[in-house]
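Before drawing any conclusions, I looked closely at one protein's amino acid sequence and its backbone structure tokens, quoted below without any editing.
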Amino acid sequence: MKANETVDYNIKVCWHAIARMYNTEAAKNDITTSIGFVLLNIDPEKGTPATKIAPLLGLEARSLTRILKSMEEKGLIYKVADTQDKRSVRILLTELGLEKREISRRTVKQFNYKVREVIPESQLQVFFQVIGQINGLIEAKEIYPAKPSTK
């Protein structure tokens, strides 16, 4: 089987193309794609607990910590102690953060609008179904099952 005939190769190539496109747009606005995705996952009115952001994006906590530090340095966010749980930190957007969030939102919407303009809804529904099934196989560990314990 040739690389371009494998499922993972095609997903990876497509994702890298999307990432390059988003990075180009993000750079025009002095942010990164990662920052854009984080901005989109922060509630613009109430903020979002820091512990909720990493799982939404599939990030490790230390990667998110690095991104949040960068965002704070750029003046996009600020942190406050959560009123319900003093051990938790809530991430809120500054005015600049709100502006960059809106740019990120428009960028993602434009991509999706253009894709939907070209690809019929019926094909997109099949795509979503297939991607969901692949993700389900991975999440259920059906591709590489865990080895039984040898205790």
Observations:
- The first helix runs from residue 7 to 28.
- The radius of gyration is 19 Å.
- The chain is about 60% helix and 10% strand.
- The domain at 3-139 is CATH 1.10.10.10 (Arc Repressor Mutant, subunit A).
